[in-house]
Amino acid sequence: MKAEVGGQGECVNYDLEMRVMATAGFVGFPNAGKSTLLRAISRAKPKVASYPFTTLQPHVGIIHYDDFEQVAVADIPGLIEDAHLNHGLGFSFLKHIQRCQCIFYVLDFSLSSLTEQYESLKRELRLYNEEMIEKPSAIVINKMDLSKDSTENVQSYFPNMKVFPISAKNKENLEPMLIYLRQEYDAYVAEQQTKINAEEDDYVLKF
């Protein structure tokens, strides 16, 4: 029966940032074979070609295990030097890695020193966000079909790391990498369940 004009309403602007969610992220330089690897282990179909920056958007593939567990893996577009300064599309690529529980550094055997590739990738992650290099990680050396070295010689480059020499193109030696991925996934799930149980116990004690 009676109305007032009312006060001035509030207007708020929000910036929403979308990030891919996956258990593991493939990190590497352009043409290291990340998309080929994703196609080899999942049903995802990212574009594959022989020129740099074929992948311009992250792709997520789902790996199906024999016990019907499904694990998401993200193909992160290739990084370049000084990506942490937003060179190229640096931030657009790096932000997706923050949501991954573990990182697979995909190195290209056909390029220069493997250790140099690894240190350069790790440097870009560290300078963007120091917490990212604290995530569980492993090294995937791709294009081993071009190698004359034995697996043992390649693994000796990284004595303190999990190393998986593979050929994504030929789908060779992928099983050890998938087993490691599943172990990391199970460990993460167990950790999250422990946190949930602790919070529930704390809630019961309070009330």
TrEMBL record:
It holds the Pfam family MMR_HSR1. CDD domains: Obg. It comes from the Eukaryota. GO terms for molecular function: GTP binding; GTPase activity. SUPFAM superfamilies: P-loop containing nucleoside triphosphate hydrolases. One of its GO terms (cellular component) is mitochondrion. InterPro entries: G_OBG (IPR031167), GTP-bd (IPR006073), OBG_GTPase (IPR045086), P-loop_NTPase (IPR027417), Small_GTP-bd (IPR005225). Residues 22-186 form the OBG-type G domain. Keywords: Nucleotide-binding. The keyword Nucleotide-binding applies. This is OBG-type G domain-containing protein.
